[in-house]
Design a protein that fits this description.
By secondary structure, the chain is of the alpha/beta class. It has one domain (4-245): Aldolase class I (TIM Barrel). The protein has helices spanning 19-28, 45-51, 76-82, 92-97, 102-114, 127-131, 135-146, 174-199, 213-217, 234-245, and strands at residues 4-9, 34-39, 56-59, 86-89, 118-123, 156-160, 201-205, 224-227. An eight-stranded parallel beta barrel has the order 1-2-3-4-5-6-7-8, surrounded by six helices. The structure holds 2-phosphoglycolic acid (PGA). 2-phosphoglycolic acid binds at residues 9, 161, 166-167, 205-208, 226-230.
């Protein structure tokens, strides 16, 4: 059985006062059957880790090198040193704004695995790609290039995030989500064998809210969610976690 996972991506939001949201989540979900990870901005990682209790803290990116002349970047070992146990890689906002391609993301994931960080590797199609019926081709190519051979069920989570659903309030139909998640599952089983392929958790991301979470979590091969806007406040994130708890 794969454990359910609710991951929060705070993006470039939050400051010291926001740590109270993590404290609230830690208090309210100390017991549940769902794993939680919050990925705050790098400036908050060590302070978040100090108050997170059972919640894991993650970064939102890391560099592929261990150290060196890379102004503004953070290495996987530095994330680990700050208290992170996970890292989001290949989010579409980084693929676009920072021109990260899948080969770079694979190298970052390799570096993160060497530090025993759990990598949440993001894949997803644009609206134009979906309209052209290229979704599965795009996802297949992103998976084979972005996921390194070092992936295991312990160190790798895949987040399916249609780019057009992020921050827009638009969500694919449940059939569409199921089709992509089943495709990702069989792709991983083919490449890594059924043991690893079945143990990697698959998250859906893109406009997950308290109001649509239960329906999304009923879809096959959806093991949780990667949540942006609705992860910033415990009052929004908690009902999403509760919807996931209810499936276990
Ligand atoms: P959203 O963001 O939940 O605000 O749509 C999801 C994400 O970008 O990970």
């Amino acid at each position: 059985m794969r454990r359910k996972l609710a991951a929060g991506n705070w993006k470039m939001n939050g400051n010291g006062a926001s740590l109270a949201e993590i404290e609230t989540l830690a208090r309210d979900h100390a017991e549940g059957g769902t794993d939680l990870v919050i990925c705050p901005p790098a400036t908050l990682i060590s302070r978040a880790a100090a108050v997170a209790g059972p919640i894991d803290i993650g970064g939102q990116d890391c560099h592929m090198a261990a150290s060196g002349a890379h102004t503004g970047d953070i290495s996987a070992s530095q994330l680990r040193d700050a208290g992170a146990t996970a890292v989001i890689l290949g989010h579409s906002e980084r693929r676009e704004a920072h021109e990260e391609d899948s080969a770079m993301i694979r190298e970052k994931a390799r570096a993160a695995h060497a530090e025993d960080l759990t990598t949440i590797i993001c894949v997803g199609e644009s609206l134009a790609q979906r309209d052209a019926q290229n979704t599965l081709d795009i996802i297949g190519a992103q998976l084979s290039l972005s996921v390194p051979d070092t992936a295991t069920g312990h160190n790798t989570v895949i987040a399916y995030e249609p780019i057009w659903a992020i921050g827009t309030g638009k969500v694919p139909s449940m059939n569409e989500i199921g089709q992509v998640h089943d495709f990702i599952r069989s792709n991983l089983e083919r490449r890594f064998g059924s043991g690893v392929g079945r143990s990697v958790r698959l998250l859906y991301g893109g406009s997950v809210k308290p109001g649509n979470a239960a329906e999304i979590f009923s879809v096959s091969n959806v093991d949780g969610a990667l949540v942006g806007g609705a992860s910033l406040k415990a009052a929004d994130f908690s009902p999403i976690v509760a919807a996931l708890d209810a499936t276990t």
